[in-house]
């Protein structure tokens, strides 16, 4: 009588499937999802509350203007949540990488309580920097924040600056977020932002 191998084939397929599932579970447990805090809260929380966040952000932007003062320009900041075209970098925003001093300028009728900044490099080997901002004495409706302490970056390149602003809307504490891409350090000769040979 001829042997029939199809039962062994079925058992082999089931066993292989179980092994693959076990390997997948082990890999998932050893590499958990990173719940980044790029915009002041966990990504999951941002996803759940995005509609309320956008309403708050748009209401603030309708009333207020926010600028980043660099070494050479006063840049209007854009919402961190709205898709917009990146600014073309044609010159360095901050020449000195050891102390790239900047000002966050806010024109608003709201009561601004505090502001801080996060600076992240586009290379994975650059550690993000968190900077607390101190408020200068207000000049009518213009509020200016500057870094409370001097700071520097590790290398010349392109960085993303994110700003977290807390304010009062009546008696309610609200938060809004703005960001801008900047170039810190001397711009390399022949630098073109869209070329992949530059990692920054």
Could you characterize what this model shows?
This protein has 200 residues and is α+β, with helices and mostly antiparallel strands. Helices cover 23% and strands 32% of the residues. It has helices spanning 6-30, 43-63, and strands at residues 65-69, 74-76, 78-79, 103-107, 111-121, 129-135, 142-147, 157-169, 172-184. It has a nine-stranded antiparallel beta sheet. The longest helix has 25 residues, at 6-30. It is elongated. Residues 195-200 have low confidence and may be disordered.
Condensed summary:
With 200 residues, this protein is an alpha+beta fold. The protein has helices spanning 6-30, 43-63, and strands at 65-69, 74-76, 78-79, 103-107, 111-121, 129-135, 142-147, 157-169, 172-184.
- Strand proportion: 25-35%
Q: Main sheet, how many strands, which sense, barrel? A: 9 strands, antiparallel
Quaternary organisation of the protein chains: single chain
Determine Rg (CA atoms, Å): 24 Å
What's the average pLDDT?
Answer: 83
**Helix segment tally:** 2
Helix/strand-derived category reads alpha+beta
- SSE topology string: HHEEEEEEEEE
Number of strand segments: 9
Estimated helix fraction:
10-25%
> Strand order across the biggest sheet?
2-1-4-7-6-5-8-9-3
User: How many angstroms separate the termini?
Assistant: 71 Å
Q: How would the global form be characterised?
A: elongated
The unreliable regions are 195-200
